[in-house]
Write a structure and sequence with these properties.
This protein has 264 residues and is an alpha/beta fold. The protein is built from 9 helices and 11 strands. Bound molecules: guanosine-5'-monophosphate (2 copies) and sodium ion. It comes from Kineococcus aurantiacus.
């Protein structure tokens, strides 16, 4: 209850902001997109990351209000940046609850219209955990979301679970053939291992996922790239697009803006 009230107040008091992390084409280092990441500049508790407040707050009216703010803000910012970087895409994260909620696509449509943003410029990251939902219902929900013209990527795909001896969770691309999605984002737990001691298996998994992705016409984006060696290995494996602290940390509009398009 208290959190609900705090969230609503903070939306109205403008305490939220978005940090944008570059998404980079590995072949030439060009920034092809940005991922919007929510931050709460709390009056007394300082700067909070989503883990600190989103977990206990799924699907309340306040969270839905916050999510509409994220969508509107990210779409408007992308429209502004695209005047200098015409092909830039913007990624917004959706919780599983939002994906399954009726009405989510109306919010997406409203944000696109308000910003006059080309729907093809919007990417919706949805949790790969959704693969555990009823397939027919999930398909229906994703189809409705995708009818907005936005692209849909399954986030945190192929997670390495150390508690289960490093097994890959949700790592099969086969079910994706039936789902209306445009690609996957390889989880940083997997990407983090490709240049490590167990790197051969992790790298083999990445290679297979990239090959399958190409065959099934699914995009594959690597997350959590922290070292140059990973860029080399990902490129060899056929992964063309990635993000991570090596390629760019999440930054404010004021910090990132001047760099976008500066290389032209
Ligand atoms: O930078 P990082 O700490 O922001 O993000 C932590 C987690 O919070 C990530 O898994 C990310 O997907 C999620 N996240 C970040 N911003 C948003 C948002 O606007 N909405 C939702 N639902 N999740 C977000
Ligand atoms: O993909 P997801 O939405 O789960 O990822 C967003 C989260 O990842 C944010 O918390 C962001 O700060 C974090 N992040 C971004 N780049 C890196 C990286 O290179 N390494 C790690 N460990 N985390 C990263
Ligand atoms: Na994401």
């Amino acid at each position: 209850r208290q959190l609900e009230h705090d969230l609503l107040r903070a939306v109205h008091d403008d305490e939220f902001e978005l940090a944008y992390q570059p998404i980079v084409r590995l072949a030439d280092g060009a920034v092809v997109g940005v991922e919007a990441l929510l931050r709460w500049r709390h009056r007394t508790r300082g700067l909070l990351e989503p883990g600190a407040f989103l977990a206990g707050a799924e699907r309340s009216p306040a969270v839905e209000e916050l999510w509409r703010w994220v969508l509107r803000t990210a779409c408007a910012q992308a429209a502004a940046w695209r005047e200098r970087v015409p092909d830039l895409s913007v990624t917004v994260n959706l919780s599983a609850a939002h994906v399954m909620a009726r009405g989510a696509s109306d919010d997406v449509r409203a944000a696109l219209a308000a910003a006059a943003l080309d729907p093809a410029a919007l990417v919706l990251d949805v949790p790969a955990d959704l693969l555990g939902e009823d397939p027919d219902l999930l398909t229906a929900r994703l189809r409705t979301l995708r009818a907005t013209g936005a692209r849909i990527l399954l986030d945190d795909f192929a997670t390495l679970d150390p508690a289960r001896g490093g097994v890959l969770v949700n790592h099969s691309l086969a079910p994706l053939r039936q789902l209306p999605v445009d690609g996957v984002k390889l989880d940083r737990t997997l990407v983090g291992e490709i240049d490590g001691p167990e790197g051969v298996d992790a790298l083999a998994a990445v290679r297979v996922l990239c090959e399958l992705g190409a065959a099934l016409d699914l995009g594959v984006v690597a997350e959590g790239v922290e070292r140059t060696e990973q860029v080399v290995l990902l490129t060899e494996a056929g992964c063309a697009v990635a993000q991570g602290v090596l390629l760019g940390v999440p930054r404010s509009v004021a910090e990132l803006g001047p760099e976008l398009g500066a290389g032209e």
